[in-house]
Design brief:
- By secondary structure, the chain is mainly α.
- Helix content is 67%, strand content 4%.
- It is globular, with a radius of gyration of 29 Å.
Length: 325
């Protein structure tokens, strides 16, 4: 535990000294791997899967504000979808721009969730995002998780039904539009996932705010339990193809990652908790103070052993002068 805190302080100090370089590099990595995983999930535009194109776009995203980076990634996703169906790409673009204008423009901190949800779905670990959102953000961020879940299922529907959108002609345009809209609106698994993730966020947020020791750990455990039970019920009622063992395993892994991140972000020492009570003319205050873990940097002392003694050499002329005196 102490070593983790020491490394955390070192990383924090290093980040403070080099944040001007670390932030663009982090955004570059986020954009590059997001495009890579999204292309793996679709793969309809070979040009966009080129490493050179992804590197250029990632470099561009590294120096853009977060909102413009999200817009760039949205355009990338829509371009990928265009390779499968022009109609579906247009509908998806309209939906995403409405989401952006109505919500993300006013909640820029939540904008990354829109891209991270599809990426973590591809990694089979979407269960981590709702837990972290409940720990670090507010229940209003349910909207971002819902939008991100919608984006994944829209991409997945186009990817799995790509051959059905290959028809051309005037009649095919209307058919492709209606097929895409019906496929998204009628996707019960998407609605079920949004409900489970929303319940997870609310439960984690509520438990974390309780005045008890290790509330964050209990919140993470409660969030994992909600998702396990929720997707078991989803398998029983909505979709029998849900792999329960995979859900349980990845939920446990997500809980462990969330617990580690929570400890690194806000390490609290509950053994030194203090309860303070005081009052003024209008209120009576009952405050619970929980100190953070603090560590001192290890001091490295170098002790010299058998150090060489400096020899003083006298000049012979000085000795003769002393004798004459």
């Amino acid at each position: 535990m102490t070593s983790l805190l020491v490394y955390k302080d070192k990383i924090k100090e290093f980040y403070g000294q080099n944040s001007i370089y670390i932030r663009p590099f982090t955004k570059f990595l986020l954009a590059f791997f997001s495009m890579m995983f999204l292309h793996m999930a679709t793969g309809y535009m070979d040009l966009l899967g080129s490493p050179a194109i992804m590197l250029i776009l990632a470099l561009l995203c590294a120096f853009l504000p977060n909102n413009l980076m999200i817009v760039t990634l949205i355009i990338y996703i829509v371009a990928e979808m265009y390779g499968a169906s022009m109609e579906a790409a247009i509908v998806l673009l309209v939906c995403l721009m409405i989401m952006y204008l109505l919500y993300y423009k006013f909640a820029p901190k939540d904008s990354l969730i829109l891209i991270l949800m599809p990426v973590f779905f591809v990694l089979k670990m979407p269960y981590l995002i709702p837990i972290l959102v409940g720990l670090l953000l507010t229940p209003f961020s349910v909207v971002s998780v819902a939008f991100g879940t919608f984006l994944y299922y829209a991409i997945n529907f186009i990817s799995t039904s790509g051959a059905a959108f290959a028809k051309t002609g005037e009649d095919a345009v209307a058919g492709n539009l209606s097929q895409f809209i019906a496929g998204i609106i009628g996707n019960k698994m998407m609605y079920a996932s949004i409900v489970v993730f929303a319940l997870t966020i609310v439960v984690v947020y509520a438990v974390k705010r309780l005045s008890m020791d290790n509330a964050s750990m209990y919140a993470i455990g409660a969030g994992c339990l909600v998702q396990m039970v929720g997707f078991v019920l989803v398998r029983m009622t909505v979709d029998e193809t849900v792999a329960i063992l995979v859900v349980i395993l990845m939920t446990v892994v997500s809980g462990i990652i969330a617990a580690l991140l929570d400890f690194l972000i806000l390490p609290l020492d509950y053994s030194r908790t203090e309860v303070v009570q005081y009052e003024d003319d209008d209120y009576y205050y009952y405050v619970k103070a929980v100190p953070k873990y603090t560590v001192t940097k290890p001091e490295i002392r170098v002790k010299r052993i058998n150090a060489r003694k400096e020899r003083t050499h006298r000049h012979p002329e000085s000795d003769t002068k002393r004798r004459t005196r």
